[in-house]
Amino acid sequence: MKKTLLFYVLISSFLCANSQNKRMLKPNDVYNYKSISNPQVSPKGDWVLYSVSSPDSAENKKKSDLFMVSWDGTQTLQLTYSNEGESDAKFSPDGKFISYISSKKVDSIENSQLWLMDRRGGEAHQITKVKQNLKSYLWSPDASKILLVMKDEDPAEKKKPKTKAPIVADKYHFKQDVEGYVDSLNSHFHILDIKTGKINQLTKGVFTEDSPAWSPDGLKIAFSGNRTADPERNSNSDIFVVEISTGNIKQLTTWKGSDTRPIWSNDGKYIAYSQSTGDETYLNYDQSILAIIKPDGSDQKILTKSLDRPVSNYKWSIDDKEIYFLVDDDRQSYISKIDLNSGSINKVIGGDRSFSDLESNVNGDWLTSMSDPYHPTNFYTLSNNNLKQITKINEDWLSKIDLATVTGFKSKSKDGTAISGLYFKPYGATVEKLPFILYIHGGPVSQDEFSFDFTRQMLAAGGFGVAAVNYRGSNGRGRAFSKSIYGDWGNLEVMDLLGATDYLIKKGWVDETKMGIGGWSYGGILTDYTIANTNRFKAACSGAGSAMQLSMYGIDQYLLQWNEEIGLPWEKKGLEKYLKISYPFTHADKITTPTLFMVGQNDFNVPSEGSEQMYAALKTLNVPTQLVIYPNQFHGIGVLSYQVDRFKRYLDWYGKYLK
């Protein structure tokens, strides 16, 4: 990586001296960067329980510990310090206990188990010894029971053979990133009695149940699931209610699309849930709508269809008169609410920042998490539209870092479509026209927001102007905008990326002779598409991408999407589509851009074959190229040293060709 250091020296000619006690971001800051998640407000509303994922350089991974912060932010307590880490922590409804899932091994049981910690003091203790895979759990309202969501036990594993049994695939959806080859086992509900420790199975059969929610009276559980005749051939999901005493199940919704994530109103009269806009077999370009229905299946109301923006994290107000939720909208994620009497939708708080979690307090206030371009995610209380920060994760070390300035911009593509983006200007840059990196988000159905972006800040710290562009296919601009690329990959998106690049050149911010491009996942795929369209970019880093799309059929996890969106490759029309969207590979001889390909060895999302094929093509054509495969990694690179390595390689590759 000596070339990276050389590039830092070269780029310093047009960077100002940093303030005396600050420095630029560097790849090893991966070992400083923490993340915060899963906030839970205590029943009395005086404390917030949450998880902090911290880098452990010795173990080369992140580990999760539990913390509590008082509602006013004046007291913070760390609750756990274990090496195994804890997840899915919750307060018991009576406020006496904190529960969590831990992989700590006790009595030679391999599986993760449920643990209880008395808030009044004492050691945490394990309360389950299940052999099944414990996926999640949920307290009953009276704190006497816990619903366990567990995957059926594999009969082959009961015998504990010395040699693992052969992998047998009989499901249509037979591959899934991280999970690996998908078995035929289903997940069901089990009820744990806290006093006796006895566990009774509530649901059985050939279907999987998920997203459970107890009714306020503790007599029923709402859940979502796919109970169609052939659930693996579609993305359908409906809302059901099961009675605890009898196990009888009632189906509430019949939408051919997806109805999921039920939440009961506080009085138990309604269930709020998320419905897909469309009813396609595969809902890749869809966005969620808020809906409500009575527990008997009557009085269904679709609430936010006119908004034409995806909603999430919906929660009932204490009086059940309103539902609060998050909205993704053109580089922002804001908090909104709907009045259930009038149907009026009003923004609660927004701006050039990104809100995520949303939890209610018994006093009527709210807890949320928020990030902006200069501050990673932290927790805030929201009272009368006033935000108050109560956690300070990452603030100590980031206060010593000079960050790039982030500016929103809007460009036009050659067909006149308006596109939104973000531009990162390195701290202290004294010239306008900078070496430039267009770093593309994945998805494609996601969006770059006014939030803290560790990757683009890292690239900008190397002396590059960096852009994020919400090309067509992204969300935040309505369903039609997102679905416009359906079956036509690498066309409108590349047009939008090049239009944004032209805009930044005209602004005088970019040196058009020193431009690079890159991205991960669909960002890597679009990198391949773009360099096959133009030789304007002098360096590329394609992460977890693919180009010969015909060869991806059956080796990734998207079989339903291939069938619906592109077609069947053995049929003439389907084959023509596959070859059309495979043009980066079939026209590899047009590529002159030096390209670094990177991928996880065990990626089932966009398998390594996609990167390997493009590497082989460019190597054959004598185009400068390199292939980096991270051992035993999935679509996301989890090993910390590999994350550092990736950043160093980015800076080295771009530095070599964009000096």
UniProtKB/TrEMBL annotation:
PROSITE patterns, alphabetized: PRO_ENDOPEP_SER
InterPro entries in UniProt: 6-blade_b-propeller_TolB-like, AB_hydrolase_fold, Pept_S9_AS, Peptidase_S9_cat, WD40
Full protein name: Acyl-peptide hydrolase
PANTHER family from the UniProt entry: DIPEPTIDYL PEPTIDASE FAMILY MEMBER 6, SERINE PEPTIDASE S9 FAMILY MEMBER
Highest taxon in the source lineage: Bacteria
Species whose genome carries this gene: Pedobacter psychrophilus
Residues spanning the membrane: none
Any one Gene Ontology molecular-function term assigned to this protein's record: serine-type endopeptidase activity
Peptidase S9 prolyl oligopeptidase catalytic domain boundaries: 451-659
Biological process per Gene Ontology, one example term: proteolysis
Protein task: This enzyme catalyzes the hydrolysis of the N-terminal peptide bond of an N-acetylated peptide to generate an N-acetylated amino acid and a peptide with a free N-terminus. It preferentially cleaves off Ac-Ala, Ac-Met and Ac-Ser. Also, involved in the degradation of oxidized and glycated proteins.
Keywords: Acetylation, Hydrolase, Protease, Serine protease, Signal
Signal peptide: 1-17
